[in-house]
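User: I'm writing a tutorial on reading structure tokens. Could you give me a worked example: one chain, its sequence, then its tokens, then a sentence or two explaining what the tokens reveal?
Assistant: Sure. Here is the example chain.
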Amino acid sequence: MDAALANVPASPFPFPSYANDRPSENDYLTSVATVTGGRVAVLDTSQIRLPGQTAFEPCDIVTDDGRLVFGKVRALRRT
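And here are its predicted structure tokens:
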């Protein structure tokens, strides 16, 4: 997995880094709109519902240049 991810280019979008002062995914997503100058819409927990289909979340945030982003908090490895 690490080797595959190493080949994915970094995004030039000015996402803030996830830091210890933002302890949850929700806190981070809430801060992104402010930190990026309003360039994102937070869609976390917003569901698309189609008749006869299971509801789904399209993404956590969408940027003004069309990026669909899922933000997930990862656990730190303890060594």
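What the tokens reveal: Residues 2-69 form one domain. Helices lie at 2-6, 25-35.
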